[in-house]
Amino acid sequence: ETVAAVLPMQEHWLPQSNLDLLLPPVDVGVFFCYKKPTVAENLFTFGSMVSVLKKATAQTLVTYYVFAGELVHNTVGEPELLCNNRGVEFLEAFADVELRDLNLYNPDESIEGKLVPKKKKGCSPSKSS
Predict the structure, then answer these.
(1) Cross-strand partners of 81
(2) How much is the pTM?
(3) Which GO terms of the molecular function aspect are on file (predicted)?
(4) 3-state secondary structure labels for all residues of the chain
(5) Which candidate in 2, 58, 79, 117 could, as Cys together with 6 as Cys, close a disulfide (CB 3.0–4.6 Å)?
(6) What does the domain layout of the chain look like in residue ranges?
(7) pLDDT at 121
(8) What is the Cα–Cα distance from 49 to 38, expressed in whole angstroms?
(9) Looking at the predicted structure, is the pLDDT value of residue 125 above 60?
């Protein structure tokens, strides 16, 4: 699912700095882990926690609108940031596994592509011809 900022915004372009152009593109993903609520703690269900996170993300993207944009190539092939409120990918999942059973020191070994899947949208690292 895609979550966009709760308020509309004017579409505009932001050029990359020289430093941005030198560094390779990096995908950033975030995942949250929560303690499974006990029967006595039934104030939050999995669905209600996800709903709160979606609303908070949409509100945060109003201030940090750049994160809701896309990295695209301009007419001369340089990457630029299109601030268009495309939104961010929001995935939810449930796993009945103990955190101590995951090797977070070497995530490529135990959780690669499972907690933070590969990006589906956005600019590819290399220019296509």
Answers:
(1) 14, 71
(2) 0.75
(3) shikimate O-hydroxycinnamoyltransferase activity
(4) CEECCCCCCCCEEEECCHHHHHCCCCCCCCCCCCCCCCHHHCCCCHHHHHHHHHHHHHHHHHHCHHHHCEEEECCCCCEEEEECCCCEECCCCCCCCCHHHCCCCCHHHHCCCCCCCCCCCCCCCCCCC
(5) 58
(6) 2-109
(7) 60
(8) 14
(9) no
Q: pLDDT tens digit string along 4-53?
A: 999 998 999 999 999 888 888 777 777 777 777 776 666 778 888 889 99
Mean pLDDT (whole number) for 101-119: 71
Q: Which residues contact 115 (CB under 8 A, 6 or more apart)?
A: 29, 31, 93, 107
Phi-psi bin for 77: left (phi > 0), alpha (psi -120 to 50), beta?
left
Q: Quickly state the pLDDT bin for 124 (edges 50, 70, 90).
A: very low
Residue range 2-109, CATH number: 3.30.559.10
